[in-house]
Amino acid sequence: MDLYEIGEAVAVALNLAYVVLAIFQSVLCWVAGLFGAALTLVVFLHARLYGATALQVVYLGLMVYGWYEWKHGGEKGGELAVARAPARWRAGLGVAGVLFAGGLGLFLDRATDAALPYWDAGTTSFSLVAQFMTTRKWLESWLVWIVVDVVYTGMLVSQGLSVMAGLYVAYLVLAVAGFAKWRRSMNAAPAGEGV
Fold first, then answer.
1. How high is the pLDDT of residue 84?
2. Distance (Å, rounded) from C-alpha 21 to C-alpha 15?
3. pLDDT digits over 133-166, tens only?
4. What's the predicted TM-score (pTM) here?
5. DSSP track, the chain
6. Could you list the mean pLDDT of each consecutive 10-residue stretch along the chain, which spans 195 residues?
């Protein structure tokens, strides 16, 4: 096993820990996510998936932001509760995701030796959308993750990254579980909480 394979395996473990902890709304998910993003960055850079590499850089910042929001972004500076994403945010994030994916795909196609420029750009863009939604504890974040995980799995298989592809299959299963658990949490909250 070479250094990249070891890094890939550790990144997989940390990233799975992040998702499991997020499902249970543990603030520790952000610590696991921070270290997982750092290692995943190295793995994707080695595989020439530049959009996915850049995504990990942004994730590092989003992990810090998410930790803060989950601890202090709720009512009166308290813990954030699960809520539905406001309609204007859903529409805006969807448009931003498409525009960013198109621009990034064009750049990756023309300026780099990216293996899958447009697929890479699309998953990068909508991963950012989903991750931002997760930092706000918006229920619909899990639905975006489900779509992203399906596409990422195919991309990674095509690049011979079988361990990382396995991670995204696990992410898919966990995203379905996360959606169900967060929906139950939101439905159990007293009226007005988390809005």
1. 97
2. 10
3. 999 999 999 999 999 999 999 999 999 988 879 8
4. 0.86
5. --HHHHHHHHHHHHHHHHHHHHHTT-TTHHHHHHHHHHHHHHHHHHTT-HHHHHHHHHHHHHHHHHHHHHHHSSGGG-----BPPPHHHHHHHHHHHHHHHHHHHHHHHHHS--SSHHHHHHHHHHHHHHHHHHHTTBTTHHHHHHHHHHHHHHHHHHTT-HHHHHHHHHHHHHHHHHHHHHHHHHHHSPTTTT-
6. 83 92 96 94 85 85 95 90 96 98 94 91 93 97 97 93 86 97 89 48
Tell me the one-letter amino acid at 52.
A
Q: Find tokens 């850089």 and name the residue.
A: 57
